[in-house]
Amino acid sequence: MDREIVTIVSGLPRSGTSMMMKMLQGGGMEVLTDGVRTADEDNPKGYYEFERVKQLEHDQSWLEDARGKAVKAITALLKHLPPDYTYKVIFMRRKMEEILASQKQMLIRRGEPTDTVGDDRMADLFRQHVEQVEAWLAKQSNIEVLYVNYNEVLERPLEHAQRINQFLGNMLNVGDMAGVVDRSLYRQRQ
Fold first, then answer.
1. Is residue 103 classed as helix, strand or coil in its secondary structure?
2. Which residues contact residue 41 at a Cβ distance below 8 angstroms, ignoring those fewer than 6 apart?
């Protein structure tokens, strides 16, 4: 792995970003996390988040510590990545119905309302957002992107671990990466 590159794991909420972070860590990559958001029923293996990422628009000083590591960032923050770094983005995709079902289940567990926006409208908003982010990413000369389908990783973890390893420079242990994938956590199947 190039020690100058910042690896970003991104995707819509509930798209498998935590699983991907765990795979990268399992394969031997250092991950940038702070443990503030702890494991719970929705993510029993942990969230793998770094709180300072949420302030990316105003604070980019932490990126220096992210070189050679993987860090998770929501898709809306990607446009705030400063151009003076080189990035490899692993962009997680998942069936939209599963994302919505997983998000709804998480809101129910937290006692938050689930009916503020209908599923069809939310799916449209998510699709539009992803199209905009993908179009922006395609124009960035300092960003390489690998699109990874969560559903396919669950079906063929070793194959996808090999793809991800190749994208990141062939320095990870693909067997250990694939071994992290836990199909028992695939609960919102569609």
1. helix
2. 109
DSSP H helices, the chain, are: 17-26, 63-66, 96-110, 119-138, 150-155, 157-167, 174-180
Closest CA to 169 of 22, 2, 11: 2
- 39 neighbors 45 (Cβ within 8 angstroms): yes
Q: What is the pLDDT of residues 36-95, one digit of tens each?
A: 766 556 665 667 889 999 999 999 999 999 999 999 999 999 999 999 999 999 999 998
| Residue 33 · residue 18 · CB < 8 Å | no
Q: What are phi and psi of 92, to 5 degrees?
A: -80, 135
Q: Which domains does the chain have, with CATH numbers?
A: 5-183 (3.40.50.300)
pTM, two decimals, is 0.87
Backbone angles phi, psi at 136, to 5 degrees: -65, -45
